[in-house]
């Protein structure tokens, strides 16, 4: 069987964005933001996942993630968060992907290496609800991108996104639940959940 290789950061970013899109659908299901009936069962990386049936919701998620791909490829996007808000539009939880893509060398990277690593994150998301308190009723959600920098060219293409306020949590304590992390020659990534809390808590170290 021919080995598919990822040649550069663009290939890695494309596969990551495909994975991120699946994760958003799965998180909306796992955190029970919508009724179970609006999801259908699919498989990704041979993992059973939930996928929204509603075409407008699917298109919104796909468009948002697609618009992020160039920023991720160029290393401008430091963190991507799915932010859940209560009925009063107060943030109650953020699921955060913190990532750093690295330049591929030599003949590139076998795609299955990255797929295997991302599969581990997806499996953790599928069971993450057991480690988290339930969300309040009538939650809404939004996607937030935290940027290191933004070139003029990329800024002109960013109408879909509104930059996050870097000071949006400056006066708030929070707790962190680490879901999974990895370090490799091609991608460093942390997946964790941030919730408002009384005492700040350091991220716990887990096995990749």
UniProtKB/TrEMBL annotation:
Key words, A-Z: DNA damage, Nucleus
Chief location of this protein within or outside the cell: nucleus
Protein name as it appears in the record: HORMA domain-containing protein
Ranges where the HORMA domain occurs: 10-193
Subcellular location per the Swiss-Prot or TrEMBL entry: Nucleus
Biological process terms in GO annotation: DNA repair
GO terms for cellular component: nucleus; zeta DNA polymerase complex
Species whose genome carries this gene: Physcomitrium patens
Keyword DNA damage: yes
């Amino acid at each position: 069987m021919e080995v598919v290789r990822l040649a550069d950061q663009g290939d890695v970013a494309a596969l990551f964005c495909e994975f991120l899109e699946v994760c958003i659908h799965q998180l909306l299901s796992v955190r029970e933001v919508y009724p179970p009936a609006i999801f259908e069962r699919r498989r990704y990386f041979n993992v059973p996942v939930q996928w929204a049936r509603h075409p407008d919701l699917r298109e919104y998620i796909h468009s948002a993630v697609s618009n992020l791909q160039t920023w991720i490829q160029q290393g401008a996007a430091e963190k991507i968060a799915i932010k859940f808000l209560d009925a009063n539009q107060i943030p109650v939880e953020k699921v955060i992907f913190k990532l750093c893509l690295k330049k591929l060398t030599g003949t590139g990277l076998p795609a299955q290496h990255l797929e295997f690593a991302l599969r581990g994150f997806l499996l953790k998301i599928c069971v993450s609800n057991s480690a988290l308190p339930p969300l309040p009723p009538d939650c809404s959600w939004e996607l937030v991108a935290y940027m290191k920098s933004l070139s003029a060219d990329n800024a002109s293409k960013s109408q879909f996104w509104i930059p996050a306020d870097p000071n949006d949590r400056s006066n708030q304590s929070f707790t962190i639940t680490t879901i999974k992390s990895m370090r490799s020659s091609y991608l460093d990534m942390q997946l964790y959940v941030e919730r408002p809390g009384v005492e700040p808590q350091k991220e716990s170290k887990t096995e990749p």
